[in-house]
Amino acid sequence: MAKHYIVGSGSHGCLYDNGPHAHKTLKDAVEDLAFLFELGERKKRELRKARYLELGPKYGADYCEITECTCGKPWEHNEEGSAEDWPEYRQEEEE
Hints:
The chain has one domain (4-94). 32% of the residues lie in helices and 28% in strands. It has helices at 26-37, 41-50, 87-94; strands at residues 4-10, 18-23, 52-56, 61-69.
């Protein structure tokens, strides 16, 4: 299975307020969270390296994170995702 990256954010001790959402690349995952929280370049570098970032009240969430996953159905990580969004996985499933 090809790896994918799951993003989420929220308050400590609670389920995600935003997410989870799956992305095909780490770059896409970082860019998604950077756009959502309007992160500068320094914070984007920190997030890319650690795959976790403490945020705080200014951002409306305590933290955001990126988790690597290798499950066979990445669309199940997205509330509105579908298998059609991940054709490379559907092909593996059909074989």
